[in-house]
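In response to the reviewer comment on reproducibility (Comment 2.3), we provide here a single inverse folding case reported in full, input and output, so that an independent group could reproduce the run without further information from us. The structure tokens appear first.
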């Protein structure tokens, strides 16, 4: 008796004399209910000049009930002639894993209602993740766009101000001042005087465009006299004070420190922002 799905060993023995070759016919067929897992063979002397060959066949049964292992053909060759003989059929009883208690009601569990099985649906999770990623990209793009569109301008003393309106004339001047700052020319002792000259040129061009003055051949004093006829008095005073300080470095040989150069740059920005705002307010009132 063998359990279903277990395995057992089937032994086949043949005794033969000198000059005889014996073997099993291949493939070894035991019947549809049996699976041959592996096969080994071993020879040993019989003691009377003959040889004993034993085959060990590892078998697994896959059907229940009273079964029979089919006869197995053993082939032989002697003096140039071939033949075969067969083993007897082997009866087998194949039982289930529970053995004799398989029909015992106490060994069986009672009937139970069907149980629903649930599986995790990842579809909406993926949809929510994708939507979150898209929203994150949109928010980041809007934030970057807002950062680019919002111009924070440094005024005197390092304060931060955002003008109500900067026109193209003011924007060009501020961009040129930013380029001077990023070039670090005001930080180098050897080039600081050149940086002051570049800042003066930016402010002169800005004033010429703002008040429509041909400034190329005008000295600082001549430019101030023309401005006195076109701009408010306090604006003229703001420009005069800034130009005077820069001219001392540009023409008078005064050596400015990096901090003084930075303040002059901030004051130039403040001058542009102040005159732009007042210009815009004046136009609105008109």
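Designed residues, in position order:
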């Amino acid at each position: 008796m063998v359990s279903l799905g277990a395995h057992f060993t089937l032994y086949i023995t043949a005794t033969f004399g000198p000059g005889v070759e014996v073997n099993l016919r291949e493939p070894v067929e035991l019947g549809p209910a049996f699976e041959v897992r592996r096969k080994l063979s071993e020879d040993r002397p019989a003691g009377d000049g003959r040889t004993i060959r034993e085959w060990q066949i590892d078998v697994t049964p896959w059907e229940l009930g009273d079964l029979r292992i089919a006869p197995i053909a053993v082939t032989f060759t002697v003096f140039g002639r071939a033949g075969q003989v067969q083993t007897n059929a082997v009866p087998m009883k194949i039982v289930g894993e529970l053995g004799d208690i398989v029909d015992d009601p106490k060994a069986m569990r009672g009937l139970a209602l069907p149980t629903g099985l649930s599986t995790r649906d990842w579809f909406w999770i993926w949809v929510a993740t994708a939507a979150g990623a898209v929203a994150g990209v949109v928010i980041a793009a809007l934030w970057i766009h807002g950062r680019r569109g919002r111009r924070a301008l440094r005024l005197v003393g390092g304060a931060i101000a955002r003008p109500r309106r900067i026109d193209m004339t003011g924007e060009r001047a501020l961009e040129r001042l930013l380029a001077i700052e990023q070039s670090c020319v005001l930080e180098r002792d050897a080039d600081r005087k050149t940086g002051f000259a570049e800042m003066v040129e930016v402010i002169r061009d800005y004033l010429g465009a703002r008040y429509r003055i041909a400034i190329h051949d005008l000295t600082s004093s001549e430019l101030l006299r023309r401005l006195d006829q076109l701009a408010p008095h306090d604006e003229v005073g703001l420009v005069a004070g800034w130009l005077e300080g820069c001219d001392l470095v540009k023409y008078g040989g005064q050596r400015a420190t990096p901090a003084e150069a930075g303040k002059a740059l901030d004051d130039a920005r403040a001058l542009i922002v102040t005159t732009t705002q007042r210009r815009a307010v004046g136009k609105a009132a008109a």
